[in-house]
Automatic annotation (TrEMBL):
The keyword Cytoplasm does not apply. GO terms for biological process: carboxylic acid biosynthetic process. This is 4-amino-4-deoxychorismate lyase. GO terms for molecular function: 4-amino-4-deoxychorismate lyase activity. Its EC number is 4.1.3.38. One of its GO terms (cellular component) is cytosol.
Length: 278
């Protein structure tokens, strides 16, 4: 199901975007993926805030929030698929040499079966060097670290490398062995009743799912921390999780070929916490 920013529905199987759109030619644009359950979008405002933040980081025009909200409603009002929708908002710099009018749309899609399986079964991940160091994001803002840009080719290449190594997910690290994030997810480490995630100042995306989980956990008396995590810490933890709008809370059971402590029960607790927000 596809809706445009002028408030109309479009056929997702018909041509829509021009071949000279800079989103296509250069990945020059931003996006969000929002989870919708039973017609209700989760964390819509934080996603729209982050879309605006990513656009600002790339000197794009400010996305028309009301137009995106209307496109979201249009898709959801007309959705005929399953209970859950992955709702993508896309906003590009528009056509090469054009008048600067951005291209934007909201596209509803089913959640991939593989991801749903991994929510239940957990997954194996590998650590991969992302080649960034603390301080780089601030020192070199043109690298767009922490922007949700359409240039995800590196993230997808990392996932293919994980597959080559017999795993299905990636934990990106700095060259000095500090944990960053997954290619499409935030990492959360649990020890006792404390949840820890790395700070977005390292050049990673501030996650809406992580924020929702931390909100629920704080309410229920857990401690939450935003601080650097060394890769070695992950092996000592009670649980390691990759979380995102589409993945929800997914357990990492194996890291770089080594089994992590069984966190099945902890996973259930975190899922309950997260779901209690909605
Ligand atoms: N980090 C990256 C690089 C992502 O692409 C995503 C989501 O796609 C996340 C983290 C998790 O963000 P959220 O929980 O807002 O979906």
């Amino acid at each position: 199901m596809l809706a445009l920013l002028d408030g109309t529905l479009a056929d997702p199987d018909a041509p829509l975007v021009r071949v000279d759109d800079l989103g296509l030619l250069r990945g020059d644009g931003v996006f969000e993926t929002i989870l919708v359950v039973d017609g209700k979008p989760r964390e819509l405002d934080p996603h729209l805030d982050r879309l605006a933040r990513s656009a600002a980081m790339m000197d794009l025009p400010e996305p028309d929030r009301a137009a995106f909200e209307r496109a979201v409603s249009l898709v959801l009002d007309n959705w005929t698929g399953g209970r859950e929708v992955a709702l993508k908002l896309v906003f590009t710099r528009g056509v090469e040499g054009g008048d600067g009018t951005p291209t934007g749309f909201a596209l509803g899609m089913d959640i991939p079966a593989k991801v749903i399986g991994q929510r239940a079964d957990g997954l194996a991940a590998v650590t991969l060097d992302r080649g960034i160091e603390p301080g780089l994001a601030e020192r070199a803002p043109w690298l767009l670290l922490g922007a949700k840009s359409l240039s995800y080719a590196v993230n997808m290449a990392a996932l293919r490398e994980a597959e080559r190594r017999g795993a299905s997910e990636v934990v990106f690290t700095t060259s000095s062995g500090s944990v960053l994030e997954g290619p499409t997810s935030t990492l959360i480490m649990v020890r006792g009743r404390t949840l820890t995630t790395p700070p977005s100042t390292l050049g990673i995306l501030p996650g809406t799912t992580q924020a929702a989980l931390f909100r629920a956990a704080t309410r229920e008396g857990w401690a939450v921390r935003v601080e650097p995590i060394a890769v070695d810490d992950l092996y000592e933890a009670d649980g390691v999780f990759l979380v995102s709008s589409v993945r929800k809370i997914t357990r990492v059971h194996t890291l770089d070929g080594k089994s992590l402590p069984d966190s099945t029960e902890l996973h259930e607790e975190l899922v309950d916490l997260y779901e209690s927000e909605y």
